[in-house]
Amino acid sequence: MNTSKVTEKLHWDETLLAALREDIPWEDVSANAVVAEDARGKADLIAKAEGVVAGLPVFARVFSLLDETAEVVFHAEEGARVQKGTLIAEVSGNMRAILSGERTALNFLQRMSGIATYTRRMADLLEGTGTVLLDTRKTTPLLRSFEKYAVTVGGGRNHRFNLSDGVLLKDNHIGAAGGIARAVERARAYAPFVRAVEIEVETLSQLDEALAAGADIIMLDNMKDDLKEAVRRAKGRAKTEISGNVTAENIAYYASLGVDYISSGALTHSAPILDLSLKHLAAV
Q1: Is-catalytic flag, 235?
Q2: 200, 209, 241, 260: which one is catalytic?
Q3: Taking the complete model, does pTM exceed 0.85, yes or no?
Q4: Is residue 200 flagged as an active site residue?
């Protein structure tokens, strides 16, 4: 994967530079104290747990921002499952740059790999069902592009990327508009005709109103006992999405109902990091 193209496309450099400035306000006093300015070295990126690796281009980019001569040789591909002890990559270049960039590079890679690992676990449970796994906007401020990218590496798909990206009318929008029918009508009149209109409902009566109003996608939020009937009523009239408290324990059941989409905020807000480490730094 071409690192420069990925970072250019998703505008990652600005965030990576901000993270580096946060960690290195003026100098890395530890590295500068013990390592000669022109010393060169090599270190190994090793998995300390089993999981799916995501963010390798980001990891490499951190070092190239600090050292134009830095090189990263990958021994695992983006999206690969790795085992504890797997050698994922070798980083070589200016030794000070490797030491200074280590934590920032690992922070991004561990976070993104954790999301990809959790997403892959959930996506595997949907395999063969025809139901699509989606993320949400419940992301870390300013890190959304990294986190949503990691979801796709793990086998999920992105829901709205931001508020400009699509129409999703939730309970407060409905209340502000004065009801479901009026909310859908206003959205149709305002948004470009190519935009689908999605609306959140919590009861079967709200579902019927949303269907009558011509909503394209119905988000069934925490409906529990009425979900099966809701999916049946919407079949052929609107796409359906289940949202709210989706876990690995219940996602297969939700998919068995024939729902089109399942969205889970947990993919980004609750995924633990994947434990990775940069080890064996030595002079070359």
Answers
A1: no
A2: 200
A3: yes
A4: yes
